[in-house]
Amino acid sequence: MTKAEFVATERAPDPPPDLPPDMPDARNGPRPPDASSPASSGDAASAVTDLYRGHALGLTRLALVMVGDRGTAEDIVQDAFAGLYRRWPRLRDRDKALTYVRSAVLNRSRTVLRKRRLPLRVVHQPPVWSAEAEALVAEDRREVMEALHRLPVRQREALVLRYFGELSEEEIAAAMRVSRGTVKSTTSRAVAALGRMLEEEL
Amino acid sequence: MNGSEERLRDALHHVGDIVQPGDVPPPPFPAKRRRVFARPMTMGAVVAATVVAISGVAVGGNALLDRTAGESSAQNAAASGEQRLSVFLCAKTSSKWACKAKDATEQQRQDIERRLRALPGVRRVDYVSRTAAYRSFKKEFDDDKNFPFRVTPANISPFFQVRVEGTVDVKAMKAKVESVPGVDTVIVVPRKAGA
């Protein structure tokens, strides 16, 4: 991109699209993009780059708590953004790009975990919270992470989006592609099950 | 809100914080040009992490220690089986959840220092203030036109330079210290080749 184009992009008069509210990722990352992505111009590089700058960190952290190792988490997020970039020209509702990429991260995490359960599973790193992993995570937190990972995958996702992503019910529903009612019931079942597991360990 | 929900939140954020801003690779597609200077605050956390990493190794390893500890033979000390940790305090630009985007308080600073001194195998603890860290950083990198960030005193974190005996398990120490309130990150300063 030439200097002139760069300046033009900077001063793009396009009104910023309303990205879904995303305060949580703000706490997890440098800050979400200031919605300066000129969606209407269809400049995929520009819009997706802004989204990446603002949310790649938060989403990598999300993938890490889901799959347990950094390398896989990074790959998942890179793939998800590469997919968004490819589909950008055909993406109908660009305001929902963040929801889209968040769903992609969840789906890919789920696929990775499923593959690891297959008989001829790929060799993978022990989770960062495990005892083998160089004492990165203290004992009491390890218990919580292990209990979380004994829950069914949908319950785990609901909990992670709520207590890590701090998303609203509506946002969780959009990311998991289920109804709000399902989010409610899944979350309450998950909290109850987690509470029971943690109590048993006392 | 019950205990297990709070524990879950704490554990998730603690694990999430293992990924730091500097760890995120460049985007997997042709990115438009960076606008670092247009939005310095957006990059604040990245600056902090990078500065933390660089100053922890390059500055903390030489210039700073020489000055604050008044020792000219810092390198010799490293060679004699000593290990070093840089314990960076929370700053407004910290991306760690537990920092809550606030500077570490004076109370926290004192508490961290007390705890560091009480750890087994710790030989020496030096505090490097934000101003001192900034000055050394400027000195080290001022001529470096390639350095990608504009560094101001606001996005440099104050830190403790800790020297521990060579036999101590520094990784375990790092994990322990990082869970102390007010600590952003702990960097184990790599030993010099041949040390």
Automatic annotation (TrEMBL), chain B:
The lineage of its organism: Bacteria, Bacillati, Actinomycetota, Actinomycetes, Streptosporangiales. Gene3D superfamilies: 3.30.70.3040. The chain crosses the membrane at residues 42-65. The keyword Transmembrane applies. Pfam families: FtsX_ECD. Keywords: Membrane, Transmembrane, Transmembrane helix. This is FtsX extracellular domain-containing protein. Residues 85-186 form the FtsX extracellular domain.
